[in-house]
Write a structure and sequence with these properties.
Length: about 180
């Protein structure tokens, strides 16, 4: 199988980040998180659907007392951000006075993150930080801080490692970018 390019539905994607590089970036994020939260209990909030691979890889590397909460949000339709958060479920535990760490697969415009930060702040956590595997720096329009960034990528549409194009491609071990 040729792993350099793949086709999903009507689109061709080319290899952008190999799994080895993804693993390394997640390892570095985990190191920083372990250092910063030493001796603390952390509530990790994973944002579904896309985060499942990043979350699984990241939490396995945390030497901390960790509890995991999953939340489902949706701001994407096809290949672009709608600017509106569509669906939501989750947040069943009380986050008051907890050390909360949001984990995302990718941050694009930052709309989803800004929404989530506002939501969680109403719970009055002790601390609130964000970790994301990928950041599209040029697309990011919000002022909110992102404490842990795995890799900064150009403003291109990507699939793989949990991220989808129209529901497909999430299972891919590497990350691919839409061919332009
Ligand atoms: P934002 O609200 O614009 O920051 O978009 C964040 C969410 O949109 C991410 O958590 C992803 O679920 C999705 N998303 C953003 N960029 C991409 C992409 O390039 N490929 C697949 N999903 C993406
Ligand atoms: Mg996501």
């Amino acid at each position: 199988m040729n792993t350099e390019t793949i086709t999903i539905k009507d689109k061709t994607f080319e290899l952008l980040i190999e799994s080895k590089e993804i693993k390394k970036a997640i390892g570095q994020m985990a190191e920083a998180i372990n250092r910063d939260y030493e001796g603390k209990e952390v509530v990790v909030i994973g944002v579904l659907d896309g985060v499942f691979m990043v979350l699984a890889a990241l939490v396995k590397k945390l030497n901390l007392s960790v509890s995991i909460e999953l939340i489902k949000l949706k701001s994407y339709e096809g290949m672009s951000s709608t600017g509106q958060i569509r669906k939501i479920f989750g947040l069943t535990t009380d986050l008051k006075d907890k050390h909360v760490l949001i984990v995302e697969d990718i941050i694009d415009t930052g709309t989803t993150l800004a929404f989530l930060l506002n939501l969680i702040r109403t719970h009055q956590p002790a601390t609130l930080r964000t970790a994301t595997l990928l950041l599209k720096e040029e697309a990011f329009q919000n002022q909110c801080p992102i404490e842990y960034v795995g890799l900064r990528i150009p403003n291109r549409f990507v699939v793989g490692y949990g991220m989808d194009y129209d529901g497909q491609g999430r299972q891919l071990p590497h990350i691919y970018a839409l061919r332009t």
